[in-house]
Amino acid sequence: MRPIQRACVIAGVVIVTACGGGGSSSPSTPSTPAASAPLTITITSQNGAQSFSPNPATAGGQMVVFKNNDSTTHRVVLNDGSLDTGNLAPGATSAALLMPSAGTNYHCALHTSMVGAVSGTAGAPPTCEGQYCDPNGYY
């Protein structure tokens, strides 16, 4: 081997050894805090206050998604009309929605006997008032 070739080979070995000495072949990336995943409220059936799980959900001030595990289309709307999932086909999941910190009550706009609640950061869900409340007084 010629002296120049030998020098190139030695230099190459030194560079590879120096670059790979950390034991990891992947570059390091800066760590970023992971955003917490939204709470999933599952639509289970058309069964009044038993239509959603969990119900009430402890999610005041948090992001939630509604997942339709039923065999028919549903549309979840907060009783005050401030949030609306749009139609959710069977198997679909809504976009993430920020629940009010004080808690809230909601219903299915297509099946108005389906009702649910979100507890506020201070405890129980607010008292449900109006046409979308469970006649048994649950939510």
Structure notes:
Helix content is 13%, strand content 22%. It contains 1 helix and 8 strands; from the N terminus they run H-E-E-E-E-E-E-E-E. The protein has a domain at 39-119: Immunoglobulin-like (Sandwich), CATH 2.60.40. It has 139 residues and is of the alpha/beta class. A hairpin with an 8-residue loop joins strand 1 and strand 2. It has one helix at 3-20, and strands at residues 39-43, 52-53, 57-58, 63-68, 76-78, 97-98, 104-108, 115-119.
- Put simply, the count of helices is 1
**What oligomerization state is this entry in?**
single chain
> What is the arithmetic mean of pLDDT?
82
Content-based structural category: alpha/beta
CATH-defined fold name of the domain at 39-119: Immunoglobulin-like
CATH superfamily of the domain at 39-119: Cupredoxins -  blue copper proteins
Shape: globular
Beta content: 15-25%
Strand order of the largest sheet: 2-1-4-6
**Helical percentage:** 10-25%
Largest sheet: 4 strands, mixed
Report Rg.
27 Å
CATH architecture of the domain at 39-119: Sandwich
CATH class of the domain at 39-119: Mainly Beta
**Which residues sit in consecutive blocks of at least 5 with pLDDT less than 50?**
11-28
Distance between the termini: 86 Å
Q: Please trace the helix and strand order, writing H or E for each element.
A: HEEEEEEEE
Total count of strands: 8
